[in-house]
Amino acid sequence: xxxxxxxxxxxxxxxxxxxxxxxxxxxxxxxxxxxxxxxxxxxxxxxxxxxxxxxxxxxxxxxxxxxxxxxxxxxxxxxxxxxxxxxxxxxxxxxxxxxxxxxxxxxxxxxxxxxxxxxxxxxxxxxxxxxxxxxxxxxxxxxxxxxxxxxxxxxxxxxxxxxxxxxxxxxxxxxxxxxxxxxxxxxxxxxxxxxxxxxxxxxxxxxxxxxxxxxxxxxxxxxxxxxxxxxxxxxxxxxxxxxxxxxxxxxxx
Length: 253
Fold this sequence. Notes:
Elements: E1 2-6, H1 9-31, E2 34-38, H2 45-53, E3 62-66, E4 68-70, H3 81-88, E5 99-100, H4 110-124, E6 128-131, E7 154-158, H5 161-169, E8 182-186, H6 188-192, E9 196-201, H7 207-214, E10 233-238, H8 239-252
Parallel strand pairs: 1-10, 2-3, 2-6, 3-5, 6-9, 9-10
Antiparallel strand pairs: 4-8, 7-8
Helix pairs in contact: 1-2, 7-8
């Protein structure tokens, strides 16, 4: 795992997007197409905006999945991650993405939806995963203590109360009771199966999670710490997100 720190969120996003584009191009060159997994949330706004501005990605030769979705949320809900990705990625790239496989959070049987997606991921593999880190250290919606040993690709999880509060704080829901209590998420082992991972984490509210996940040992209590064990993971932080990690590093010198 490599960590890069940038002065501003815009500089961080631009650098992360260039790496993401390079990984997509490399996979297309190697095997004719690229499969990627996209993250959502306010932390990904600048990264996705930068990525969709890069002109020379052959999007028609890509297959897209995404990390997670709330159980019971329809694609037209303002907080739907399907809606988010359609608005911020799928509709913005030219030519369009070749295949798009979105998590149907409102599927009648969430377990069957997990099986449907699992079959698709196993058929395609994952060339690059775009991820972030939650305020409680979650990776996708793998909440602490995370399951690092499951063989499933997707699973239904109970959302941690701190994660649900984060969604209210980011403005996706008006109060805690509106936030669903369950979600479908790509599992930690499935994320780590990607050939490359681009992790983008901006903002001071993520500084404590960055320290927990990247400043200490790998721990199920800090799910995103699992990225430390993936050699082709590159973490992009702005100065605010890196503040506690850099302070701890200085203190250890």
